[in-house]
Amino acid sequence: MSDFLILGGGVMGMLTARELAQAGASVTLVERGACGRESTWAGGGIVSPLYPWRYREPVTQLATWSQGSYVHLAQDLLEETGIDPELRQKGMFMVAVDDAADALAWAQRYQRPMQQVDADFLYRKESNLRPGHTQALWMPEVASIRNPRLGKSLRRSLELNPRVELIEQAGDAKLLLESERVCGVRTERGEYRAGQTVLAAGAWTATLLAQLGIELPVEPVKGQMMLFKAPVGLVNRVVLQGGRYLIPRNDGRILVGSTLERVGFDKQTTEQARESLYHSALDILPALENYPVEHHWAGLRPGSPEGIPYIGAVPGLEGLHVNAGQYRNGLVLAPASTRLMADLLLKRSPIIDPAPYSVSAQHPCTGVDR
Prior knowledge:
alpha/beta, 31% helix, 26% strand, eight-stranded mixed sheet, disordered C terminus, oxidoreductase
C-alpha cells in the first residue's frame, strides 16, 4: 500500500505525484487512459492567464508562483528525462484591449512587467501582424510551454522514480469507502489502496465525487483548437486578440485557440468552430492563409466558478483530497497548485495561504445518503 494514491494522470496528477515522491513518499498514480492525453495535451501552454487582471486574487497568487518556477521545472525535466518541454520565454502581446487602464493598474499593484507600447514597437517585434494597430500591451516575461512535450517529460520522470507506481489504461474507477474513510480505488485493472487519496481527474473529478454523494461544481468545458504548419519566424511571440490567441512553437508551427463550449463530455470537433478559429487566426496573422491547417482537436477543461481551483481535503470524509477546477489555467497554475497540495498532504508550511482554495470555503459540499 502506498502513502498516496493520485487518481488522474494529467499535468496536475503527474506533478502532484512528482512532488510527493521527491519528498520521499511512495505514490501510486492511476490514470483511466494514457497520461497527459486529456486537457494537458489539448491546451495551449501560455504560462499566464489570458487577460490576467480580470481574475481574482487567488488565481493571481497561484499564477505568480507558477510563472517563477517554470524555468527551473523545464530545465530539471530536460536533465532528468532528455525530453525538452520547450519553454519559450518570448513574451506576449495583447492587442485591441478595451480595459488597458485596468491592466496597467493591476500590473503596478502586483509588480508584474507590463507596458503599453506603440505601433512602431509592436511591428518591429512582429512585422507580420495585421496592419492598423496603434498600440498594444506587452508582457515581456510571459512564457509558453509545449504541453504535449511537458506531459511526456513528466510521465518519463515518474517512470524513472522508484517511489512511483504508474498505472495507465485502468478504465473506470470506483472510490473505496470504508467506515467514512476513502482508502483507495477499484478499477478495471485491479484495486489500489493508499493512506491518502487525491482526486486530480480534471473535468471528471465531480463525477468521481458523485459516487460518494458529494456535489462539487467542476464541469467539463470544451475547448477546440487548431495547428498551422508554418515556417519558423512567421510569428515569434504569443499574440492575444479578442479572446483568441496564437502560440508559436520552436519548429514554426502556430497554435490558435480556443472555443468555450458547455456541452458536457462531448469532445467532438465541429465545422463551425473550425471556421471561427481559422478566421480568428487570419485576423491576427493574415499570412497564415498561405499555410495548411495540420490538426484540429478538442479537449475538456475542468470548469469551476470564477476559475478558482479546489485544493485540499474533502470535508466529511477521511483520506480524500482534491486538486481540480483550474479551468482555462491548468498549465499556468499547475506548479503552484501541486506544490500547495503536497504541502498540505505532507503537513509542511504552505507556499501560499490555502484557505481560498479549500472545498468548504468555496462551496460547502452537498452530501446525500451514502
